[in-house]
Every structure is written in C-alpha cells, then in structure tokens.
Amino acid sequence: MTAFDAGFLVAVNAFLLANYVAVRMWPSGLRATVAYLLLLNVAVLWLVHDVGSGWGLPVTAAVSLVAAVLALRSSVREMTARIAVIDGPGFDRLITAVAAAEGPQVLGLCVVPTGALMVIAMPDAQHPEGRRFVLPPGADCHFCRVEEKLRLLLGDGSVLVTEYRGHLRAGRSRHALVRRASAAEPWTGRLRDRVLYRAPAPGRRPPCAVHDAIVGAG
Prior knowledge:
This protein is α+β, with helices and mostly antiparallel strands. Helix content is about 50%, strand content about 20%.
C-alpha cells in the first residue's frame, strides 16, 4: 500500500463519516436523507474502486455499514426520547386540551401492531410543531378509544368511524387524522392514505365486546 492509497482511503472515509453526522442535523425528511446517503455511498464506493487500491473497497463498505447502524440506533433513541408516555386519564386530558385549543389544530391516532396507541397532537400554542405521545396497552380497548374521540370531534354521524372499522375487518389499523383551521371551523377527518399497520394480534390487545368480533373478520 502506498502513502497515496492510505491517505486517500483515510480522506474518503472521513468524508463519509462527516456526512453521516451532518445529515442528522438536516431538516429534510427521512426519505430524502436515505436517498442522499444511498447516492453518496454509491459514489464513494465507485470512487474507491476506481482510484484506490483493491482492499480499499471492503474497508470503506465496512465503515459505511458501521456508520449506518450507529446512526440508526442514535435516531431511534432520539425519536423514543421525544415520545411522551401517557395513561388513560392523561389521554383524555390531552384530547380535551386539543378540543379546546384555538387552532390550527391537528390530531393523529393510530393503534400500532404492539397494541399501543400512538398520538400526534398540538395540545397548546407552545408546541406548534406538534408532540408525540404513546398510550401503552392496558385493560381498555384502544380501538374503542379511537372511535370515541372521532365521534367526539366529528359527531356521532361521522362516516370516518365506519370507514375505520372497514379496515379493521380486513386486519388493518389505519392512522386517523382530524384537523381544523380554527375554533370557529368544524373538525374534518380522514384516514391517511399511506399510513397503515397490521392490527394487533389478540394477545396484544385486551378483550373487547365490540372489536373482538370486528378485527380481522373480513
């Protein structure tokens, strides 16, 4: 190995690691970040293969893989730290705060495969970017909770609950999103098109006289 090969390899891998650190501070979404890192890795590996020595390619690939794993672990830890754990009464208070807010207001509800209820809300003016909450599985049915809050905000005659149950019959738990621009305007709701989860298995949710006969019945 020549001094040029060693210096080139160190410079290239330092550049690659610097990019893994830098992208964590970008405001871009996950898809844009992943696409950038994928293109960056392809370009760097091609450069190492074309310019560097033969053994530089597996070394750079290993460095990239380790950096990707560490970045993923760090991102998961940061995301988890930003999610507040709440209980049933805390969830009810959160919905009350959302319903009483002046707006614009957004509320997202989704029962994930683990049985937990994930909530995205803007409960007050101090959090205009929204906050994430999780209500762990417990003795009460989270599907009932979602439908109860949809009826509270949209009215008993809302077709969104019927649509929501239709997906539950097919074994899918959809992300319900309700919003309004201001307190003077009515709430509107929809199921997010590209966000769906497998409904929790029976062992991951409590018995429910209503939803046991619905989930997966289709």
